[in-house]
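Class prep. Sample record?

___
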Amino acid sequence: MNLEAALQAARQGRLYPAVILHGGDGDARRRAAVELGRTLLCEAAPEARPCGACRHCRRIAWPAGGVVAAGAAAADISAAEAGRSGRLEAPFHADFQVLERDLKTSTSVDAARELMRVAQVSPFEARGQVFVIASAESLTGEAANALLKNLEEPHDRAPRHFLLLTPSRLDLLPTLRSRSLAIFLGPAVAADPERAQALARAFAAAADAYAATGAAVYLLSAAEALAAAGAPGAPPGAAGASGASGTAAGAGRRAVPGSGRASAGESAGWDDPRAGRPWALAAAAVLESVRSVGSVRSVRSVESVRSARSPQSPESSPVPEEEAGPLGGQSSPHQPPAPWRAARLALAEALLTGPDMRLRGISAERILEGLVSRHLSPLAAAAPAPRRPAPVRRA
């Protein structure tokens, strides 16, 4: 079911008591929850809900006040109405309750039980109640069970709806999914292509320098380049670029990953252990380095291979450019050779598991360094040593 169908069911009083809002970004899920809450509690005629003008619609908003439903009528009180009332109504409604994550990595059972306690009393002023769980995927096992009990034993005197917000419905317990109606809000927001390309250039430069020299300091530089994915305020291509093109000392300078927000209300920095956007951006940068940035002939350039085959050697012969790729294999002018390409693809896949490791208390910086080293370091040892010219025999 899509959001429009859910709104129509809410207008007709047929919406399922538990609804999962998944997909999209955080702002899209919050906007959908506010719009559903207004539709469910609006006191206008069913076909006109949400009207945006009644006392319920005007006061239903996200607690922080930064997210409202689309449309000026639903977002603000008109100037004339504000003049008549003499003041703006507070953006708070007693029958629209939002439970946000109270711990760093989870929503505690105490917070969930407090919400469930409110759900046992009658509505304060509307005909029903709406309870929103902002990060349903972060519910602890006990908290999820407390919610499940209320879903299995609904209140019989007034309608109550629970809106579970999560990036993916698969992040919830199967018991919660089986008792809820899932509404898909569309795919997640794609990573910024320009930023991914900038990160890819910095990462590829560091990875190519490591492939050419085998110096482990360039692995740290590659991890530093990917760490910029969690620091929106920093120039995307700054991290790691100096280390890849300059001295080893420059490559060894590491910036501590920062934090930030890609959009209002959507956590995207490393400080949030559950944030998946910086890991997705880092993975996109690695994929971009495979597709277009291209570490072509990066382990040993054509010149280095030709110099290895000295003209004094009887076995020397012209080296075609396609033979000058890493590991002595062939490479196209637009892609890294096969072993390095496979390693980067595996690294991109591993980066998507970053949030799981963050929940174990490992810092993002250590995770990035570990993943980069695990996938790239074995290949440098496999690169063949350059040929030495054959000694010249004197007659």
In short: Residues 65-90, 234-267, 293-334 have pLDDT under 50 and may be disordered. The longest helix spans residues 193-213. The first strand starts at residue 18 and ends at 22.
